[in-house]
């Protein structure tokens, strides 16, 4: 390839595979020699890596994440405690505070201990919740959005408003605990 006078003008990296989009050559004969082995954007067929890309923008198409049914969200919202077990290893289900914001289920860790449900989710992102005696498989989505964290702050303050709960609600507003804001989504 070096003796022909060609240069790679577009290199793409997607996932673990890399490839060449197209090759420019100084003479027209050389371009046709490479067109058989290096696909151009016009002739390339969709591959598993590019199937969700639009031809115009080459940006991934956003897929809506799976959500709980409305009846389950309403049940969770009405409950003060949610049964949860993080990870796949068998152990007991513990009760934690839960809130609903924008129809989505959120939890926060208060203790941040080494063997907490939050740290288990960081290592092994799957678990179960128990709603009305039924167990549902979930996965955590760790929230970074400041807007969502503020909504969750407000939801905790509205839901857990007894005098005994207020100290914990204030504690949930500390940065280290706000950073554990986790959305639970069904698998």
Keywords:
globular; 29% strand; 187 residues; 26% helix; alpha+beta
Fold and architecture overview:
The protein is built from 6 helices and 8 strands. A hairpin with a 2-residue loop joins strand 6 (127-131) and strand 7. It starts with 5 loop residues before the first strand and ends with a strand. 16% of the residues are buried. Residues 6-40 have low confidence and may be disordered. The strands form 2 sheets. A 6-stranded antiparallel β-barrel has the order 3-4-5-8-7-6. The protein has a two-stranded antiparallel ribbon with strand order 1-2. It has helices spanning 28-35, 70-78, 117-123, 146-159, 166-172, 175-178, and strands spanning 6-14, 17-25, 81-86, 94-101, 104-107, 127-131, 134-142, 182-186. With 187 residues, it is an alpha+beta fold.
Percent helix, as a range, is 25-40%
Strand content: 25-35%
Kindly provide the radius of gyration, computed on alpha-carbon positions and rounded to a whole number of angstroms.
25 Å
Instruction: Please state the structural category.
Output: alpha+beta
Low-confidence stretches: 6-40
Order of strands, main sheet, comes to: 3-4-5-8-7-6
Shape annotation: globular
N-to-C series of helices and strands:
EEHHEEEHEEHHHE
């Amino acid at each position: 390839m070096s003796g022909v006078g060609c240069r790679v003008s577009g290199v793409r990296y997607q996932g673990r595979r890399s490839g060449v989009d197209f090759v420019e050559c100084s003479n027209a004969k050389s371009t046709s020699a490479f067109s058989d082995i290096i696909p151009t954007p016009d002739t390339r067929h969709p591959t598993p890596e590019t199937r969700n890309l639009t031809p115009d923008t080459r940006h991934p198409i956003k897929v809506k994440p799976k959500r709980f049914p409305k009846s389950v969200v309403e049940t969770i919202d009405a409950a003060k405690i949610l049964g949860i077990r993080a990870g796949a290893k068998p152990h007991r289900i513990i009760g934690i505070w839960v809130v609903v914001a924008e129809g989505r289920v959120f939890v926060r860790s208060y203790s941040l201990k080494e063997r907490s449900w939050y740290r288990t989710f960081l290592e092994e992102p799957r678990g179960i919740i128990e709603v009305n005696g039924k167990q549902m498989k979930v996965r955590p989505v760790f929230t970074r959005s400041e807007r969502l964290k503020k909504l969750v702050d407000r939801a905790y303050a509205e839901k857990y408003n007894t005098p005994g709960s207020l100290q914990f609600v204030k504690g949930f507003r500390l940065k280290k605990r706000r950073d554990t804001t986790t959305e639970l989504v069904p698998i």
